[in-house]
Every structure is written in C-alpha cells, then in structure tokens.
Amino acid sequence: MEFTAEHHYDAEPAAVYAMFNDPQWWRTLVERAGAESSRITAQDATVDVHIELTTPQKARPFAGDTLGLDQTFTWTPTDGGWDGTFRQGTAGKLPAASTGTATIRAGHGGTDVHYTGEFTVKIPVMGRKLEAMAAPYVTQIIDLQQKVGTEWLSAHKG
Question: Pfam families from the xrefs (predicted)?
Fold first, then answer.
C-alpha cells in the first residue's frame, strides 16, 4: 500500500527539523498514539524509536496481543531544507514494514513536510487484506503526527 501525506506547520523549517529530532517530542507522540512503552534515541540526524502497543483486535490472530514497532528516521541537510528517509518494521510475528522519504521545506508562510512511502505485510494470500485493514491506522498515526507537531511547536516557540 503506497501512501503520501502533506503537513504544514506555522514555524520555520529549522524548528520543525529540531522537533523531529527531539526525543521528548517523540515520547509525546507515541504516548498519544497509545504506546504502552517506548525507547527513543536521537544521535546526530538519526532518531530510533521502539514502541510496544496493544495490537488492534483484527490483527491479533496474526500479531498477538502486543505489537512491537521499530522506526528509524534519518535526515540530511539540503540547500532548501532537509531530506529524510524512514523505515519502520514490526518486532514479532507480523512481518509488516514501511519505508519512504520525507522532505522539510519552507512553504506557505511556514514549513511544509511531505511524506511518500509504502506499507507492506508479507504474508502469502493475506498480506494485501491485512494492508487494507491497517490503512486506517497508518492514516491515523500520520494525522496524529501533524496534530502533536502543531501543538508542540506552538508550546515551544522561541
């Protein structure tokens, strides 16, 4: 399943970049996403996030009661902002992963962030069905990132 998302923040690109590399912002995000536990490390321009959360009911036959997710974001400065790559995978029974790219650029009086990625579940016959079942959760987390980011930047101005 391919996905794209556009976020806009009323802040300078450097502030958005700093937020994306702040472990406390990630803690706030994963707590709001319902994580039962998390481990977040940030070094240079790379953030590694591990969370444990309750598996959605429909996925429990494939993933068990608890789902572990590992995510890595890496950013590279460019002339116009930052380019990033991300990868996310499940730890455990469910072979699901997402990979993609992100950009941080000045735009519309603030900062635009663009995501492009692919989410896959590698289970013969059932993979596509599970991807479709997961689509609302993937969208929900992307939307939550925008909401938490907007709140964070408003609270951490200047």
Answer: DUF2505
